[in-house]
Structure formats: structure tokens, C-alpha cells
Amino acid sequence: MTNITELLKPLNLIYYEYDNPSKMVILDQKHTTDASMELVSITHLFQKHNIQYIIDKKKNLHIVHNPSWIKKIQYSLTPSIKRFISKQYDVYVLSDKEVDYAKNLPVIVTKPIPSEIDFNLYDGLIFTSKNAVFAIENFNEKWRQKPVYALAPQTAKAVKSLKGQLRFVGKSHYGNEFAKELIKPLKDKKLLYLRAKDVASDLCDNLNSKGVLCDEVIVYETTCKQFDQKIVLPKNSIIIFSSPSTINCFFQNADWDPTYTAIAIGHTTAQYFPKEITPYIAETTSIDACIRKAMSVKKSL
What we know:
Blueprint: H1 4-8, E1 16-19, E2 24-27, H2 36-48, E3 53-55, E4 61-63, H3 79-87, E5 91-93, E6 103-104, E7 108-112, E8 124-127, H4 130-139, E9 147-150, H5 153-161, E10 165-169, H6 175-183, E11 190-196, H7 203-208, E12 213-224, E13 238-241, H8 244-253, E14 261-264, H9 267-270, E15 280-281, H10 287-300
Parallel strand pairs: 5-6, 5-13, 8-9, 8-11, 9-10, 11-12, 13-14, 14-15
Antiparallel strand pairs: 1-2, 2-4, 3-4, 7-12
Helix pairs in contact: 4-5
């Protein structure tokens, strides 16, 4: 059987991501107008490898291993998502950004930190967070004149949405591995890493040690929102943690109930949980992937 994940890797997709449990290549519905070229690339690749698929009205691709099933598939939401919505599970995302099929519980506050930056000194910029992209846009639009090297698709989408010059998107989506990916294309170049006040990896140190000149500037900080009283969520809630900061801020404002289930956006975030909590980890580093993981976890509980 063809490994779809490995097959799609060379395309370096930004707007589409493959979900193995549902056998779907799913489009980020917030960026449907920007993804037409990616859809062409995916369909061309599938046709080349004789992979049967259908495209639903939301422009998601359903991989069909048995061609006789094609006429039976509805061009709408998948049955698993329909079941998930109808049961109205208590799934919480710890931010104020609205996400389908989840409730918002903002526990962090993001604040830009303006500074003077001479972008003429650098050959390119590194972003590992979409918050950093939005923060620099807040006080210096000249960043758009430089090539951008982004950690993951979510960061890349933020760059593209602001008309930045996206040059490269990491495949590993993790800080230390991302540094390794940058060594060859950026050898002897000088880069500026625009980052949060607190980060989980020593990206600049790793690059400097391998011959890539790297400076860093803090452009935003994340602080915990303070609540008047302890947060108490319903029993059996599923809570999505999208960063180490959300873990820290959640536990400043809530106690963990043993009936809760934690979903981590990636392996780096998963390392920051208290030792008594073992989170499930999303297939890819996006909130949508966390929602899909929540669906599959709930069905198995």
C-alpha cells in the first residue's frame, strides 16, 4: 500500500494536510482561495501513482482504495465529523481563535514587543510562529522585503496572508530538526530569527555552530490570562494544548480532573506536561489536526 504521507512530502504543502485515520487530504477552509495550485499538484501526483480519489465540495480529497465505493461517498462532511458534531462533545481550544467543533477558552495573551530592526543587514528571516509574523507586521512592514524561512505550514500561511516572500517551509515542524534543514540552503548567509520572548529550542545557536550566521530579536511575548476564580470544565472534557505556554497558563488557572483528556499539537509541547498526564499527539502540527485527534480519541474512550 502506498505511503501517502511520504508521497506528499516533496510537495511541501501549506494549505493541505493529510489525515491518515480518515484517509483524506484536507484543505484549510480559511485559505480556500490560495490553494488552487496545491490542489493541482496533489491530483497530478495521485494520477501519476494511480491513486483513486474524489474531491468533495469543500475541495478535500478522499482517497478511495476500492473504486466501487466512489458512488457511495457523500460530497459533504464525512460521517465521522457528522457524528462528532451531533454528540456535541466538550472540546476546548485554549485561545480566542474560533475553530470548528470546539469551544474557546483563552488562557494566554500575546503582546508585540516593538524594536528597531535594520533588515538590510540580513539575507533572510526565520519564523517559527505565526504570532511572530503578526507581531512584526504590527510595527515594521519592511520584513516583507526579505525571503522568509518558516518552521511549519501554519506559520507559512501567516506569511503568505500578509504578502511576505515565503522561500522555504520546514518538513519536520520541530525547532531543532528545522535548524538541520536550514544548514545546507543557508550556509554562509546571515539570517534574522524573529521570535517570542520564551522559546523551546536553541535554533540560532544551532545554526551559528554549523556556519549559518544567525541573529535573533524578540518581537512578542506571551503571558497568562488571570481569571478571578479557578476554571472548572465539565467532566470528560477534551483540552487542546497548542504550545508549552498554554500548558503553563492552563495550570495556573485550573486543576486537572482525571476524566479530562489532553491533546498536544506536537511532540515538543507534549514534553511540558506534568508527569502524571500523558497527552495524545496530533498527526500534524495544526489545530485542525488536534480536532481530528480529539474525534478519534473520543470514539475510543
